[in-house]
Amino acid sequence: xxxxxxRGAGQRMPDGRSEGPARAYExxxxxxxxxxxxxxxxxxxxxxxxxxxxxxxxxxGFFIAPGWVLTCAHVVGEGGAAVRLVGREVGIxxxxxxxxxxxxxxxxxxxxxDCVLPERLEGHRxxxxxxxxxxxxxxxxxxxxxxxxxxxxxxxxxPRLAEVAYFxxxxxxxxxxxxxxxxxxxxxxxxxxxxxxxxxxxxEPGMSGGPVVDLATGEVVGVVxxxxxxxxxxxxxxxxxxxxxxxxxxxxxxxxYRRVMQAHDLYHYDQHRSDLNSRRTWTDVHGELPSPDAxxxxxxxxLTAGERTTLCGLLAELPAPGSSEAVRALVEAAxxxxxxxxxxxxxxxRDGLGLLRDPPGGAGEAxxxxxxxxxxxxxxxxxxxxxxxxxxxxxxxxxxxxxxWRPLRRELAERRDRGLAEREQRRRAPAALSVHGHRRGxxxxxxxxxxxxxxxxxxxxxxxxxxxxxxxxxxxxxxVTPVDSGVRATLAALPEALRAPLAEAFRRCDTHExxxxxxxxxxxxxxGLAVDEWTVAGGLPVGVQRPVVFRYPADGPDPRAAARRWExxxxxxxxxxxxxxxxxxxxxxxxQWLAGLADNTVPVHCRAPGxxxxxxxxxxxxxxxxxxxxxxxxxxxxxxxxxPYHRGLxxxxxxxxxxxxxxxxxxxxxxxxxxADPDAYWAAGVALIWNDPGRPLPExxxxxxxx
Length: 707
What we know:
- There is one protein chain.
- By secondary structure, this protein is α+β, with helices and mostly antiparallel strands.
- Helix content is 28%, strand content 20%.
- The protein is built from 17 helices and 23 strands.
- The strands form 5 sheets. Strands 15-14-13-16-17-23-22 form a 7-stranded mixed sheet.
- The longest helix has 22 residues, at 406-427.
């Protein structure tokens, strides 16, 4: 009879499943059951031991961090179609303590729905028995301090198509209980937001919201969403969709996702280090799981389970990264190539580890993760780390490298020294410069540094009234990372088609200090597109949340004039000239008149951008090299005087003094209009044309659809 070590992971058991997943299920089941909860109507708070099965089951959920339950939005919406989801109270029945008990739930506590995804579910919910919009997730905050177990979430940007176990509440024997079944992931759906569960077993009512666990890695990869009406199997939501939680740029707050994942990692770190009990932790079980395949790099190719838990805990003790792009930059330096640009934005230091799985080259994951951790230890954090936290991370990296090889240890030390020198150089930068190296604007206003921005491009599809579009991250000259694209969208359909791609681009660009700029590169006839009024996330219009500027789709015909005029506008002052009207009457400017204006002039348009004479005026302004101009969507009543608009802009330009602060000032104007400030009504529909020659646009256009 073959020993355990001699039997391959693919050997079949009597039930038809391979030994590896069957053994993994035995190891993981107590941990997953301990973290899984029953979601039902609230029952007045914590009730203590032995109570909590009463009342109908709405669905399942599971603890992902102390005090936080993840479930489906349709579960917390059960029986309450007319009430708001966010703020709603629900009942949570759970197994208290740790997985040492007999599986009988021992407590019930009240929880409050903290957020749902997507946000639009608050205003638009499907009918009964209809599928809710993806990602169909909800985070519930527990309203009392209780002792409970937490599941381990994957950091992989995409789940593996492997054998999994899914868990949830069933009533097979007439009493609600938490059970698990084994199946296989069969593919993705919903642009990767959902994963397909195979039909090896049935998903029963009440299992929605329960965890889906990869049996090879021991990580929760999904949340049960729906079952098929015919036969077994169904859909689960990828837990990576938690990264679509709205961020809170420019507030100094960490944001729900980063806060919850920090608590998740510190929980497992503390459990791993604790000497108070000898019960198995998730880290222990990860180390006992059968290996799914041979490690091509040997024992030193990957971090051990304990090392990964420790690394995640040490990273969680540092301040959150300033932006997604900061994480991606360190990942690229550690991998040696660009990470998958289509993967969900990495919002935490932990997310960066998921992008380092199976890196190119022959060094393996361990080396890449140690390089990454070294770079994080010397990163310019937005706030000082806890005393000694960065040093503790470096000490761990150095100690872990001892079991690898000498060239890597030397490389890590050199990276550390180089990073410390660069951090010190940044610290000693002149006080007149911001941390990003850009001088502050006049009149006390600090413009956002020229970091990454979200780029929306749209092209007319031939002579039809439909448009192809592309959303990217513009990080600087020659550095454009695609997010998504589409074809043949009508103007009316663009806001909904672009909602998810723009939200992802914002997540990749936003920092704690500021919301990233949205640059809209379209033909001048689309400068009247109401992008600033679209709602993408957070319930506020885009133009209120962040600076929004328009750009011509390609550079103008006179780049030298554009560069000269751009520089003069940046230094100011900012005189304005009416480009498409004279005393309220429409007119088109002559090229000679435009060429004779001072280089720091800002041409102002007050009529509809898509109609003459404004359309021709916009083309003439572009040809003359004006990189900064203003236009607007005029009010519905053509008899309304444009004088308040011109007067208001003149005052804004005088107060601004110089160009760099204009995108932020226009954002503030939109905020005043949105807040019903009568003194700002003249600014309704205003649009800033901001064609920075130092940030060239990509020259290619997307492929059009079938002819």
